[in-house]
Amino acid sequence: MTRPRRARWPARLVLLLILLWIGSVLWFGAILPRQVSDQIRGTDAIVVLTGGGERIGTGLDLLGNGFAKKLFISGANQQTAAPTIRNLRARSDLFDCCVVVGFEATNTAGNAIETAVWMQGEGYLSLRVVTAAYHMPRSILEFERAMPEMEIIPHPVFLVALPLDQWWRSPRAMTLIAGESFKYWMAWVRAGIIGVPAERRPVKANTTPEK
After folding, report:
1. pLDDT tens, residue by residue, 68-85
2. What is the distance between the alpha carbons of residues 147 and 198, in angstroms, rounded to a whole number?
3. CB distance 143 to 23 below 8 Å
């Protein structure tokens, strides 16, 4: 009788891990922002994390409406962000005076470090973070880790193709949120182990995307 009981433990452990994973995804889906919580306060800067034209457009609108002194676009690359930036340069009054583009970051943690270096160089103490709503929890986690002294205001961008109220009904949304939930927990574990980065690499920033 002992052996059959022992043989059940691996299956029970696997079932427990599956239930924990499902619970973590459901919890993550529940904490995703459904609205912009602060639409009033201004900040020293706005940072846009590249990944969609809607994000950069939102950042430019906020800048044009006087929400910050400058806009920093973090993690630009030639395949995605640079073409979008070139198209939006028609608003040259904003780009020429108040937009800086960073090309070094390749992931969310890199976005936070790249932005922290730029903020430190500018002497800024507050920023509004613009990114997709599903990406916001992990972004805030990384930004607070990289610059705990800063005032950080989240400004989520809501995608029509990704309804958050019933995300579990869409296979695409469910896959995206499950994947983002996993990345969030990995970032949370890393933040707990590593803490605040000891070193911040120099950032390469330019107001003109490379051709």
Report:
1. 999 999 988 755 566 666
2. 11
3. no
